[in-house]
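Reviewers of the previous submission asked for a worked example of the structure-prediction workflow described in the proposal, so we include one complete record here. The input consisted solely of the amino acid sequence. No template or homolog information was supplied to the procedure at any stage.
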Amino acid sequence: MKVFAALLLLSLTAFAEETARSAFERGVQMFYDAKPKESVEAFDALLKLEPEVKPQLWQRGLSLYYTGDFKAGREQFETHQTYNTNDVENAAWHFLCVAKADGVKAARQVLIPIEGDARVPMKQVHELFAGKAKPEDVLKAAELGEGNELRNHRCYAHLYLGLYFEAIGDNAKAKEHMVKAATDYKMDHYMGKVAQVHVKLRGW
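From that input alone, the workflow returned the following structure tokens.
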């Protein structure tokens, strides 16, 4: 009986892990398919199975942003900050959620300070969101490297410029930059997909 119980427990554990993995993959795929509501549902199913992974689940925060649940998005990014303390992108998405809910001024007051994110052009993105840099500074910083590396830098620059302009209410510039991130400098990684999903959801 003890051997049987041990085997059963091992089997159930493996099943739970597989189910959690499937839920995560479904959450990602639903986001890529521009279905943020279904994406959040999948990530929430994952958290029911393994609640301890919540601090790592920044992908859920992105999906929450696109459902319009900015309060829950803010909370997810604040939780992620305890896991990943030097990520400008987390600070930026936290800013975006707060800006949508409470305005840009309030978002700047609680902008998460970040040091040590050396990725191009993340320093300038953070300064832009803080009101200490201009969009031109982000674009200039992104012009580093060549080939696919340069393309990636430009993708990130236009993605975050698009998000920034949307936050401050300039939809024309938001569209201009986001379309560039999604098409001219299209990338297939998660943040590249964000630009593509954003364009699709906004009907651009």
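The first helix runs from residue 2 to 32. We consider this example representative of the routine output the project will generate in years two and three.
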